[in-house]
# Entry
Amino acid sequence: MSDNDQNAAADVSAVLGEARLRVRYAETDQMGVVYHANYLVWFEIGRVELMRQLGFDYKQMESEDDCFIAVVEANCRYKSPARYDDELVIATEIAALRGFVLKFRYRVCRASDGTLLAEGETTHIITDRNLKKRPLPEKYVEAFRRVRCGAHFS
# Structure
């Protein structure tokens, strides 16, 4: 692991958006390694938990504010394998918020030793229920900006 990867793993516990989970057997392939698509599911878990830690959630955004966050791009860089029963830390931050675009950045690390397993980003377009672009309500903009100001990822 490079010095940068070690530093990134060490910073993971300081990020506001943090979720923990344990790898289930069903998430692994025949070699006992986590199947690659599960990381995108874990990114969603990180995103949802970040919002909860800010005091709101997707359900509230949709039902109260007719505000949806549609994924338009996702990427993931795999650094080291996760395996069955590993406890993982998913650190999430707001990478960008401009106009109708919201971008999240993620790091998935093994809790026991801080090894960086994967990192990635998702880009979202803010829409109404009819998928028409709309501005993010100000209460969410303010909450996201608070997190962005304290970002730990480079």
About this structure: The beta strands are 17-22, 68-78, 87-98, 101-110, 116-127. Residues 38-53 form the longest helix (16 residues). The CA atoms of residues 127 and 135 lie 8 Å apart.
